[in-house]
Amino acid sequence: MKLVIDNRTGYLNDYYFQTLCLLYFPGEKFKQNDTSDNSAYFYLEETDKENHMFVSHVVLSSGDRKAEGHFSGGYTPSIPMNDDFYAMNALGKAFLEAGNNLFGFGLPWGYITGLRPVKRAKYYLDRGYSAEEVITLFESDYNVSHEKSTLSVETALLQQKMLADVKENDCGLYVSIPFCPTRCDYCSFVSYSNAKLFALIPEYLEKLMRDIRDTGDMIKRLGMNLLSIYIGGGTPSILDEFQINRLLKCINESVSINDNTEYTFEAGRPDTVTLEKLKAVKANGVKRISINPQTTSDFVLNEIGRKHSVKQFFDAAEMAMNLGFDSVNSDLIAALPGDTEVSFKQSIEDVINLGFDNITVHTLSIKNAANIRFVGDGYYDPEGDFARASVEYARNRLGEAGYKPYYLYRQKNTVGNAENTGYTKQNKENLYNVLMMEEHSTVFACGAGSITKLVSPNRNEILRHAFPKYPFEYLREEKGLGFDEAEAFFSKYRKDDIH
User: 150, 323, 390, 462: which one has the fewest Cβ atoms less than 10 Å from its Cβ?
Assistant: First the structure.
């Protein structure tokens, strides 16, 4: 995408302008000498610093179409803000006007570019602002639709209850199994379906278990309390029942687990789920499991290159339900290639009727390395109408069925400027999802592509440590986050020495 920025203020960096563009142009790149048919011009000037007065002008082009947006003046936000916000507001309003004029639709999330709008809503709720005041902030100051403003605040209010008893020394643990049997067309994940990669699994597990033991020792030495464990991927159930049993026994021996510890295994692909694997998971104390079809249309599954059938999903779901896990989750994706209003609604009905008490509705995101980017025009929903209608339907239908939103996040290349939302029946929330997505508490991570986040007690500082992205690189990594580094981080905030 061709991008020209004339920013005559000390506010906002070039990255902000780029992420703003992605709201209307998901998946675009910003390179010198770009040959794209899309372009954006931004002008921003502060005319009166004392009174926060700005002038902004935005011109957006797509092919032979062009549209402009303007803003001039200042305003008083409904909740006090820092200086950057006034510049964001002036630029955002002009950008939304230009985008609406060019494409004929507004953005449901206004000009909010961050991945965590609920974190923003909860920030103000925690400081004593009412739900009505925060909804007004989102609608009036960020130009967020009433529906999304209400969704954010409703989700934040449930998170307040979930996190009320979480203490400063509570933490989570993520374990990464970065292997999948095949790669879906919408996915840019690092795993590939080839014998060379799968041959690494035994060696990968040995390295992973060493890191789990080291991490468990670190958690104990830091005096932290493990609230939640999440085994994700990839597709963890690509492991056989013997490998699953070894991995879970290693976790159970390395960390302190009690009846209150949330323990989740993301089985994922239905074609990898067997009764023997589920029994191994259940026998090792796992309470929650996830089985993810993304759609219950065989036609759509074929369109996205997902190599399993709807029947396999129904069979896997039945096995999981019959084993008596505390909670069973299912994931769907809105706006998949080949999906229709009828088939998406049927997918929603199927996961409700099967008895899933935790349902996550994602929206298709155009990943840079996903096959979907390279198959030609019309393969996905470029204008986003279907995506927006689908997530709205899901929210309403799941609400009717007794589900409430409990976590939410956005991705910068999401079709239709929509979002990903986790819905839950009462008391079936997944705490790990909230700890991780809202960056509320420390989450230790083990395995390729995983990221440990040490969160300070005041939540103003986060120290990240990322493992190498690819399994073969991870195997060459000698050591992850060390105790001394973690101790030094937390000792800045703790009165007592860590032993």
Answer: 462
